[in-house]
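Subject: Protein entry, chain in single-letter code together with its fold tokens

Area: Proteins and the way their chains fold up in space.

Attached in line: The record itself begins immediately under this heading.
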Amino acid sequence: MMKKIILLVLLALVITNGYSQKKGAFRVGLDVGYVPAGGGGGGLLTIEPKYNITENMNVGLRFGGAAVIRDLESNVGDSYTAKVAGISSFVGTYDYYFHKSGSGSSFAPYVGAGLGYYSLANVEVDDSEVDSGVLNPSVSSVFGGLIRGGFEWTGFRFGLEYNFLPSSDLEDFDGNKVGTANNAYFGVSIGFFVGGGKWGAKAP
């Protein structure tokens, strides 16, 4: 998964050089996607207002939610997988776009990163040792980050991202630690954006 992102970044650096949208303009993007996992998969949805600080760089605030199948490890070392659990996020982002000046092309590869807060939901498991079948994370939110890459074409966007989150302890109804959850996840998304200028057009 991480190799795909690295290869995409290297390809963008080799085949393009910098230029793009309208400096000082605002744009808003909406993305939906898939979170792959062994034995199943989840989904994600994000909305992201952004501001173009230059023609080829912007900053934004990403509001997102992901339904993730989490890998769990019990106190006795057994590994198992939880049912789909929600993770919501509020992340400040930065993206850099690669677009050849004067080419007239509407294809624009990008790379980006972000830092922010992620909110962790309860997880449901099939385990006879857990009476309710529901485990609570010991913390309700964590600080994490993401790296991402992809491309935009006209008003559409395709992206790959990896969200770095620390693992969290899981507790039963009585507050006893019964395991650990791996909260990091990878996502593949498609979406669209409005505003911010037009790819392939000369910035005024």
